[in-house]
Amino acid sequence: MTSTLIECNGVSRTFLEEGRRIEVLGDITTAVGEEEFVSIVGASGSGKTTLLRIMAGLDTPTSGSVTYRGRPVPEAAGAGKIALVFQSFALFPWLTVMGNVEVALEAKGLGPSDRRKVADKYIDKVGLDGFEEAYPRELSGGMKQRVGLARALAVEPELLCMDEPFSALDPLTAQGLREEVLRLWEDESIPVSSVVMVTHSIDEAVLMSDRIVVLSRRPARVAADLRVRAPRPRSLKDAAVQEAIDGVYSYILA
Amino acid sequence: MDGINLPSVSIGKVIGFLEILDDLGGRDDVFRAATALQMELDDILPVIEAAAVLGLIKVEKGDAWVTEEGRRFLDSDINQRKRMICLRLEEIGLFKELVGILRSRKNARISRSAYASRVLKGLYSRDAADLLHTMIDWGRYAELIGYNEDSDEIYLDQPITL
Predict the structure, then answer these.
(1) Which CATH architecture fits A1-81+193-254?
(2) Nearest residue of B to residue A130 by CA position?
């Protein structure tokens, strides 16, 4: 049994919209341990991204608590223990690839030569060597998301949160990048211990994850917490993978 | 490869296609692969062409299959993959010529427009721009050539020391 990284206890989140209260998250209790790849799935509008943003310290719950190794999440996020990869890449268009990665390290307080050294390492890890001086507009979607990944990894987080990281990519590029993200997660020289990924693709969740947390419709609760036992590397042709996919659908459609 | 052209496809797409083809058993009918991927034939054909130009797959009579080279590529880490693509690009006429031009120049640099007017003069400007975009994308991935948009110069990524 590994120890717990992040723990959500009775987390709810209500938004006020035009005077109406919208209860997005009902009562979420779940946890992510060390060395785990966990996906969060659920019908659209079920609050997957809201939950992820709360885990990453970008939003606070209306009630309930989220702790990271027993500490408040914003503190851990501030210390660089948690990093987030965005669906839309969220790159600075006026900065080069190197600049976009270094910017995260500047925020962490590293001096110029250390910044360059660490940025170089992660640019190399994600396969962006050769693209250091390219601007985002020169890059394909897949290369842009590699920059997003390099920027998140460069702060050397323990928990990597990813919000639909492949959904803005064409299916071929997404396929290639999924494999590479799994390799990065398994790479011993990268300090990321666990990954939490929000996705609307059940196939993707099953192909990549150790565990899948299925959210119910609004206000979201944990409808199911499923372990995927199929050996890696996985293929959609594997019977165990198809079985797991059917299992997830049965909870989403319930 | 004959003539001046490369399919306008990112390396990322080629890698994804190679993995999917491998997943389908390493060999499949191109039309069926397109259906499985829910892609139109005219979207997938340039990807297949690019994978073939890079020597990762072979195509014959409507079937595509992963070559030995492609298999090794799939089993390789990211930096080995880059080296494999680099070796391949060095055999493709367009890149061979570009590298030759760069080696012949001091600083191993040429402006993109000078290269285009020297080598790609037979192409419509739109086609030349697409081709250059692909060459720079592949060349950067392979770390064979670099490109600096601010100075508009293409250069040898690791210039040989004479």
Answers:
(1) 3-Layer(aba) Sandwich (3.40)
(2) B140
How far apart (Å, rounded) are the C-alpha atoms in residues A173 and B49?
A: 16
A68 CB within 8 Å of a chain B CB? no
DSSP secondary structure letters along B27-57 = EEEHHHHHHHTT--HHHHHHHHHHHHHTTSE
Q: In what order do the strands lie in the sheet with A63-68?
A: A20-33, A4-17, A63-68, A71-72
Contact of A160 with A192, CB cutoff 8 Å: yes
**Cα–Cα nearest to A80, from A151, A158, A5:** A158
Where are the alpha helices (H) located in chain A, listed in sequence order?
Answer: 48-55, 73-78, 97-107, 112-125, 141-154, 171-186, 202-208, 239-252
CATH architecture of B11-74: Orthogonal Bundle (1.10)
The residue of chain B with its CA nearest to that of A128 is B141
> Does residue B34 belong to the interface with chain A, where contact is any CB pair within 8 Å?
no
Share of chain A above pLDDT 90, in %: 93
Max distance between CA atoms of chain A, in angstroms, equals 54
Identity of the residue in B47, B77, B136 whose CB atom sits nearest the CB atom of A172: B47
* Portions of chain B given CATH number 1.10.10.10: 11-74
| Residue pLDDT, tens place only, A48-105 | 999 999 999 999 999 999 999 999 999 999 899 999 999 999 999 999 999 999 999 9
**Nearest-angstrom CA–CA distance, A155 and A79:** 9
Name every residue whose Cβ is closer than 8 Å to that of residue A216 and which is 6 or more positions away in sequence: A26, A42, A46, A222, A223
Distance in Å from the first CA to the final CA of chain B = 29
Q: Give the orientation angle of helix B125-141 with respect to helix B112-119, to 10 degrees.
A: 120
Spell out which residues of chain B touch residue A176, defining contact as CB-CB under 8 Å.
12-13, 15-16, 18-19
Nearest of A58, A46, A60 to residue A12 by alpha carbon: A60
Q: What number is the ipTM of this complex?
A: 0.86
CB-based contact A132:A123 (threshold 8 Å): yes
Give CA–CA dist B90/B77, Å, rounded: 20
A254/A13 Cα distance (integer angstroms): 23
pLDDT in tens, A1-25: 579 999 999 999 999 989 999 999 9
